[in-house]
Amino acid sequence: MESYVNAFIIGGLICVIGQLLMDGTKLTPSHVLVLFVTSGVILTALGLYEPLVKFGGSGATIPLPGFGYALAKGAFKGVKESGLIGAFTGGVQATSGGITAAIAFGYLMAIIFSPKTKP
Amino acid sequence: MPKKNQSTQNKKYQEYVEKTSPKPTYMKNCTWAFFVGGLICTFGQFVHNQIESRMNLTHLEATNITTLIMVFLGALLTGLGLYDLIGKRAGAGSIVPITGFANSIVSPAMEFKREGFIFGVAARMFSLAGPVLVYGITSSVIVGLIYYVIGR
Protein backbone atom coordinates (compact mmCIF):
# COMPACT_ATOMS: atom_id res chain seq x y z
CA MET A 1 0.00 0.00 0.00
CA GLU A 2 2.84 2.32 0.91
CA SER A 3 4.35 1.96 -2.55
CA TYR A 4 1.14 3.34 -4.09
CA VAL A 5 1.10 6.40 -1.84
CA ASN A 6 4.77 7.12 -2.57
CA ALA A 7 4.25 6.69 -6.31
CA PHE A 8 1.25 9.01 -6.18
CA ILE A 9 3.11 11.74 -4.30
CA ILE A 10 6.38 11.64 -6.27
CA GLY A 11 4.63 11.27 -9.65
CA GLY A 12 2.22 14.07 -8.78
CA LEU A 13 4.98 16.40 -7.63
CA ILE A 14 7.05 15.88 -10.79
CA CYS A 15 3.97 16.74 -12.85
CA VAL A 16 3.35 19.86 -10.73
CA ILE A 17 6.91 21.04 -11.49
CA GLY A 18 6.12 20.59 -15.19
CA GLN A 19 2.85 22.49 -14.81
CA LEU A 20 4.57 25.37 -12.99
CA LEU A 21 7.19 25.58 -15.74
CA MET A 22 4.46 25.67 -18.40
CA ASP A 23 2.33 28.26 -16.58
CA GLY A 24 5.03 30.40 -15.03
CA THR A 25 7.49 30.64 -17.92
CA LYS A 26 7.16 30.82 -21.68
CA LEU A 27 8.21 27.18 -22.08
CA THR A 28 5.95 25.04 -24.28
CA PRO A 29 5.14 21.41 -23.41
CA SER A 30 7.85 20.33 -25.89
CA HIS A 31 10.45 22.41 -24.06
CA VAL A 32 9.36 20.94 -20.74
CA LEU A 33 9.62 17.37 -22.03
CA VAL A 34 13.12 17.90 -23.45
CA LEU A 35 14.16 19.66 -20.25
CA PHE A 36 12.80 16.81 -18.14
CA VAL A 37 14.57 14.04 -20.05
CA THR A 38 17.86 15.92 -19.95
CA SER A 39 17.46 16.70 -16.25
CA GLY A 40 16.71 13.04 -15.65
CA VAL A 41 20.01 12.09 -17.28
CA ILE A 42 22.01 14.73 -15.39
CA LEU A 43 20.38 14.09 -12.01
CA THR A 44 21.03 10.37 -12.41
CA ALA A 45 24.66 11.01 -13.30
CA LEU A 46 25.00 13.09 -10.13
CA GLY A 47 23.41 10.29 -8.12
CA LEU A 48 20.42 12.43 -7.16
CA TYR A 49 17.67 10.58 -9.02
CA GLU A 50 18.35 7.09 -7.69
CA PRO A 51 17.03 7.90 -4.17
CA LEU A 52 13.86 9.25 -5.77
CA VAL A 53 13.37 5.97 -7.66
CA LYS A 54 14.04 3.98 -4.50
CA PHE A 55 11.41 5.96 -2.66
CA GLY A 56 8.80 6.67 -5.33
CA GLY A 57 9.04 3.58 -7.54
CA SER A 58 6.84 4.07 -10.59
CA GLY A 59 6.22 7.63 -9.42
CA ALA A 60 9.80 8.38 -10.48
CA THR A 61 10.18 5.97 -13.42
CA ILE A 62 6.90 6.66 -15.27
CA PRO A 63 7.36 10.45 -15.67
CA LEU A 64 9.81 11.51 -18.40
CA PRO A 65 12.78 12.18 -16.09
CA GLY A 66 12.54 8.44 -15.46
CA PHE A 67 13.30 7.90 -19.14
CA GLY A 68 16.44 9.97 -18.70
CA TYR A 69 17.22 7.95 -15.59
CA ALA A 70 17.02 4.68 -17.54
CA LEU A 71 19.19 6.15 -20.34
CA ALA A 72 21.93 7.35 -17.99
CA LYS A 73 21.88 4.19 -15.90
CA GLY A 74 22.15 2.13 -19.08
CA ALA A 75 25.10 4.21 -20.29
CA PHE A 76 26.90 3.67 -16.97
CA LYS A 77 26.22 -0.04 -17.07
CA GLY A 78 27.45 -0.17 -20.66
CA VAL A 79 30.72 1.56 -19.77
CA LYS A 80 31.22 -0.76 -16.81
CA GLU A 81 30.68 -3.86 -18.91
CA SER A 82 32.22 -3.01 -22.27
CA GLY A 83 34.19 0.20 -21.85
CA LEU A 84 34.06 3.12 -24.27
CA ILE A 85 31.61 1.55 -26.71
CA GLY A 86 29.20 1.05 -23.80
CA ALA A 87 28.66 4.82 -23.56
CA PHE A 88 27.07 4.58 -27.01
CA THR A 89 25.23 1.28 -26.71
CA GLY A 90 24.18 1.24 -23.06
CA GLY A 91 21.57 3.99 -22.99
CA VAL A 92 19.43 2.81 -25.88
CA GLN A 93 19.92 -0.82 -24.86
CA ALA A 94 18.35 -0.12 -21.49
CA THR A 95 15.42 1.78 -23.01
CA SER A 96 15.01 -0.22 -26.21
CA GLY A 97 11.74 -1.79 -25.02
CA GLY A 98 10.08 1.54 -24.35
CA ILE A 99 11.38 3.20 -27.53
CA THR A 100 10.37 0.28 -29.74
CA ALA A 101 6.97 0.05 -28.06
CA ALA A 102 6.42 3.76 -28.62
CA ILE A 103 7.29 3.46 -32.32
CA ALA A 104 5.44 0.20 -33.03
CA PHE A 105 2.30 0.86 -30.98
CA GLY A 106 2.32 4.51 -32.01
CA TYR A 107 2.40 3.60 -35.69
CA LEU A 108 -0.24 0.91 -35.26
CA MET A 109 -2.67 3.18 -33.42
CA ALA A 110 -2.15 6.01 -35.89
CA ILE A 111 -3.03 3.63 -38.72
CA ILE A 112 -6.08 2.11 -37.02
CA PHE A 113 -7.67 5.25 -35.64
CA SER A 114 -8.54 8.60 -37.14
CA PRO A 115 -8.60 11.88 -35.24
CA LYS A 116 -11.89 12.69 -33.58
CA THR A 117 -13.51 15.95 -34.58
CA LYS A 118 -12.89 18.36 -31.78
CA PRO A 119 -16.08 19.31 -29.95
CA MET B 1 8.75 64.76 -21.18
CA PRO B 2 6.36 62.75 -23.26
CA LYS B 3 8.59 59.69 -23.33
CA LYS B 4 8.73 59.29 -19.57
CA ASN B 5 5.03 59.94 -19.39
CA GLN B 6 4.43 57.14 -21.83
CA SER B 7 6.58 54.69 -19.91
CA THR B 8 4.78 55.40 -16.64
CA GLN B 9 1.54 54.99 -18.48
CA ASN B 10 2.77 51.68 -19.84
CA LYS B 11 3.76 50.62 -16.38
CA LYS B 12 0.38 51.54 -15.01
CA TYR B 13 -1.29 49.67 -17.80
CA GLN B 14 0.89 46.63 -17.11
CA GLU B 15 -0.08 46.75 -13.46
CA TYR B 16 -3.72 47.07 -14.44
CA VAL B 17 -3.47 44.07 -16.75
CA GLU B 18 -1.76 42.01 -14.09
CA LYS B 19 -4.39 42.95 -11.56
CA THR B 20 -7.36 42.14 -13.76
CA SER B 21 -6.12 39.08 -15.65
CA PRO B 22 -7.27 35.82 -14.06
CA LYS B 23 -4.91 34.39 -11.45
CA PRO B 24 -6.48 31.26 -9.95
CA THR B 25 -5.26 29.08 -12.83
CA TYR B 26 -1.95 28.32 -11.06
CA MET B 27 -3.60 26.59 -8.13
CA LYS B 28 -6.22 24.86 -10.22
CA ASN B 29 -3.80 23.67 -12.92
CA CYS B 30 -1.32 22.38 -10.37
CA THR B 31 -4.01 20.49 -8.47
CA TRP B 32 -5.16 18.83 -11.67
CA ALA B 33 -1.59 18.04 -12.71
CA PHE B 34 -0.83 16.59 -9.28
CA PHE B 35 -3.86 14.30 -9.14
CA VAL B 36 -3.86 13.07 -12.72
CA GLY B 37 -0.07 12.64 -12.82
CA GLY B 38 -0.15 10.96 -9.43
CA LEU B 39 -2.95 8.62 -10.48
CA ILE B 40 -1.16 7.59 -13.69
CA CYS B 41 1.95 6.77 -11.65
CA THR B 42 -0.09 4.91 -9.04
CA PHE B 43 -1.62 2.82 -11.80
CA GLY B 44 1.89 2.20 -13.11
CA GLN B 45 2.93 1.05 -9.64
CA PHE B 46 -0.06 -1.29 -9.57
CA VAL B 47 0.94 -2.81 -12.93
CA HIS B 48 4.54 -3.08 -11.72
CA ASN B 49 3.60 -4.83 -8.47
CA GLN B 50 1.31 -7.26 -10.28
CA ILE B 51 3.97 -8.19 -12.83
CA GLU B 52 6.71 -8.54 -10.26
CA SER B 53 4.71 -10.77 -7.93
CA ARG B 54 2.89 -12.90 -10.50
CA MET B 55 5.45 -13.42 -13.24
CA ASN B 56 8.43 -13.91 -10.99
CA LEU B 57 10.61 -11.35 -12.74
CA THR B 58 13.42 -9.14 -11.51
CA HIS B 59 12.68 -5.57 -10.51
CA LEU B 60 14.31 -4.15 -13.63
CA GLU B 61 12.45 -6.47 -16.00
CA ALA B 62 9.18 -5.56 -14.31
CA THR B 63 10.00 -1.86 -14.73
CA ASN B 64 10.64 -2.38 -18.45
CA ILE B 65 7.40 -4.28 -18.99
CA THR B 66 5.48 -1.64 -17.03
CA THR B 67 6.87 1.04 -19.36
CA LEU B 68 5.80 -1.07 -22.34
CA ILE B 69 2.25 -1.46 -21.02
CA MET B 70 1.95 2.24 -20.14
CA VAL B 71 3.15 3.22 -23.62
CA PHE B 72 0.61 0.86 -25.16
CA LEU B 73 -2.23 2.26 -23.05
CA GLY B 74 -1.18 5.85 -23.81
CA ALA B 75 -1.18 5.12 -27.53
CA LEU B 76 -4.52 3.26 -27.40
CA LEU B 77 -6.29 5.96 -25.37
CA THR B 78 -4.97 8.60 -27.77
CA GLY B 79 -6.30 6.62 -30.72
CA LEU B 80 -9.70 6.37 -29.06
CA GLY B 81 -9.66 10.13 -28.49
CA LEU B 82 -9.86 9.72 -24.71
CA TYR B 83 -6.37 10.90 -23.80
CA ASP B 84 -6.91 14.38 -25.15
CA LEU B 85 -10.05 14.65 -23.02
CA ILE B 86 -7.94 13.96 -19.94
CA GLY B 87 -5.22 16.26 -21.19
CA LYS B 88 -7.53 19.24 -21.58
CA ARG B 89 -7.77 19.54 -17.81
CA ALA B 90 -4.68 17.73 -16.57
CA GLY B 91 -2.03 19.70 -18.48
CA ALA B 92 1.39 18.51 -17.36
CA GLY B 93 -0.29 15.70 -15.42
CA SER B 94 -0.96 13.95 -18.71
CA ILE B 95 2.07 15.27 -20.65
CA VAL B 96 4.92 14.39 -18.29
CA PRO B 97 4.21 10.66 -17.69
CA ILE B 98 5.41 8.22 -20.35
CA THR B 99 1.80 7.85 -21.54
CA GLY B 100 2.09 11.47 -22.66
CA PHE B 101 5.16 10.54 -24.69
CA ALA B 102 3.04 7.93 -26.50
CA ASN B 103 0.33 10.55 -26.92
CA SER B 104 2.81 12.95 -28.51
CA ILE B 105 3.65 10.27 -31.07
CA VAL B 106 0.15 9.10 -32.00
CA SER B 107 -1.55 12.50 -32.04
CA PRO B 108 0.36 14.18 -34.89
CA ALA B 109 0.69 10.86 -36.76
CA MET B 110 -3.09 10.51 -36.89
CA GLU B 111 -3.59 14.17 -37.69
CA PHE B 112 -1.34 14.11 -40.75
CA LYS B 113 -2.41 10.74 -42.13
CA ARG B 114 -3.79 12.40 -45.24
CA GLU B 115 -0.28 13.50 -46.18
CA GLY B 116 0.62 9.86 -46.73
CA PHE B 117 2.17 7.04 -44.79
CA ILE B 118 5.77 8.16 -45.19
CA PHE B 119 5.73 11.95 -44.91
CA GLY B 120 2.46 12.04 -43.03
CA VAL B 121 2.33 9.29 -40.43
CA ALA B 122 5.92 8.13 -40.14
CA ALA B 123 7.63 11.51 -40.30
CA ARG B 124 5.18 13.35 -38.05
CA MET B 125 5.35 10.70 -35.35
CA PHE B 126 8.61 12.26 -34.24
CA SER B 127 7.68 15.92 -34.29
CA LEU B 128 7.82 15.93 -30.49
CA ALA B 129 9.26 12.53 -29.64
CA GLY B 130 12.27 13.26 -31.89
CA PRO B 131 13.64 16.14 -29.81
CA VAL B 132 13.10 14.11 -26.64
CA LEU B 133 15.11 11.21 -28.07
CA VAL B 134 17.81 13.49 -29.49
CA TYR B 135 18.44 15.30 -26.22
CA GLY B 136 17.92 12.24 -24.03
CA ILE B 137 20.23 9.93 -25.97
CA THR B 138 22.87 12.56 -26.66
CA SER B 139 23.10 13.60 -23.02
CA SER B 140 23.29 9.95 -21.97
CA VAL B 141 26.25 9.45 -24.33
CA ILE B 142 28.00 12.52 -22.91
CA VAL B 143 27.37 11.34 -19.35
CA GLY B 144 28.65 7.88 -20.29
CA LEU B 145 31.83 9.33 -21.82
CA ILE B 146 32.50 11.44 -18.74
CA TYR B 147 32.01 8.38 -16.61
CA TYR B 148 34.44 6.46 -18.83
CA VAL B 149 37.09 9.14 -18.44
CA ILE B 150 36.84 9.98 -14.75
CA GLY B 151 34.47 7.56 -13.11
CA ARG B 152 35.71 4.02 -13.31
UniProtKB/TrEMBL annotation, chain A:
The keyword Transmembrane applies. Keywords: Membrane, Transmembrane, Transmembrane helix. It holds the Pfam family SpoVAC_SpoVAEB. The chain crosses the membrane at residues 6-25, 32-49, 55-72, 84-113. This is Stage V sporulation protein AE.
From TrEMBL, chain B:
It comes from the Bacteria. Keywords: Membrane, Transmembrane, Transmembrane helix. Pfam families: SpoVAC_SpoVAEB (PF03862). Signal peptide: none annotated. The chain crosses the membrane at residues 29-47, 67-86, 132-150. The keyword Lipid biosynthesis does not apply. PANTHER family: STAGE V SPORULATION PROTEIN AC, STAGE V SPORULATION PROTEIN AC-RELATED. NCBIfam families: spore_V_AC. This is Stage V sporulation protein AC. It comes from Alkaliphilus hydrothermalis.
